[in-house]
Known about the structure:
Distance between the termini: 38 Å
Helix content: over 70%
Number of helices: 8
Structural class: mainly alpha
Number of domains: 1
Shape: globular
Order of helices and strands: HHHHHHHH
Strand content: under 5%
Largest sheet: none
Low-confidence stretches: none
Mean pLDDT: 94
Amino acid sequence: MIKLDLHLSKRMRIAEQPGWLRTAASILAHSGDSWYWLAGLALLWWLGSDFWKIRALILIVAILVTAGVVFVVKRLVPRRRPEGEWGKFYRLTDPGSFPSGHTVRAFMLAVIMLGLGPWWLGLVLIIWAPLVGLARVAMGVHYLSDVLAGVLLGLVIGGVVLAVV
């Protein structure tokens, strides 16, 4: 299973190949960064209507909880990221690969927005979420199994948040 994971992850990798696909993957890989989401949600909370303030607050708390869960899992499963040049910041600040925190966060956000609405935003996020995970593999900062685990964990955390709110 590990050999298949390594083989598939290596075949998906485009980090060293110049072109539009690499550029798109790079943008998608960064689009799940927590600080972008936290900054945008803080702005939405500050400037938005009551409808958006509530959702922004729920998502901010969910992102912080998700970060804690991912931190714990990464300490329990100490798998190093694939070797590579792209994503040096991630490699330095968080050398753990399993699970993909970006993928967990993307799927958690999608599930919550599918549950809370508006429906169109949930739909956009459910299309975006798998692209984030695939881009993380394509850019060489995760293995495919890291992303698959991230999908499952994100779905679970999103479901728990919806059950609580």
